[in-house]
Every structure is written in structure tokens, then in C-alpha cells.
């Protein structure tokens, strides 16, 4: 959820962005379906370095059932904390 970015990115109009020891996040999905409704939030710019937070809430389809599920990952002080529908955590 947090890696260092160095390099340049040039758009079609020739404008160049320069990245020097910036923070990045990369994700991919090779699946063939995607939730009908979802929200994704990602933050990794905190006063404490190496602190990252990711939260996703989505409509989950499971066979003929559909429900709202969530996944939250917090990396803080070298420890990982996971809050998710599958481990019984709740959003209130």
C-alpha cells in the first residue's frame, strides 16, 4: 500500500510531472466481474511515515444473495490491522 516513486510522467500535450521520493499505491484486477456499487478510499500521507489506510465498501454478490461488505486495512507502527466483513467487524 505504500511504495516509493521516482521518475517522470509526460502527458500527450508534453507536460511532464517529476516524481522524487514520492509515495505511491498500485493495484490491479484481472477478474471478470466487479461490484455493482462500491467505494474505495486510500490514504498514505500521514505525519507518521509508513502509515497507510485503505477502506472499501461494496455490494457483494454470492450466488443468489447480495449484501454490503467491507474491507479496511490499517498499517501503523509496523503492525497491520484488518477489519472486514469476513472477520466479523462492523461499520457503525
From TrEMBL:
Which InterPro entries does this UniProt record tie to the protein?
Tocopherol_cyclase (IPR025893)
Give the protein's recorded name. Uncharacterized protein
Species name: Halolactibacillus halophilus
Amino acid at each position: 500500500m505504500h511504495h516509493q516513486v521516482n521518475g517522470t510522467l509526460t502527458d500527450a500535450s508534453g507536460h511532464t510531472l517529476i516524481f522524487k521520493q514520492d509515495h505511491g499505491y498500485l493495484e490491479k484486477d484481472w477478474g471478470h466481474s466487479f461490484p455493482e456499487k462500491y467505494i474505495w478510499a486510500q490514504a498514505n500521507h500521514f505525519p507518521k511515515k509508513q502509515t497507510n489506510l485503505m477502506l472499501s465498501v461494496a455490494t457483494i454478490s454470492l450466488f443468489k444473495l447480495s449484501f454490503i461488505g467491507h474491507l479496511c486495512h490499517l498499517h501503523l507502527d509496523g503492525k497491520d490491522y484488518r477489519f472486514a466483513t469476513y472477520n466479523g467487524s462492523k461499520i457503525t
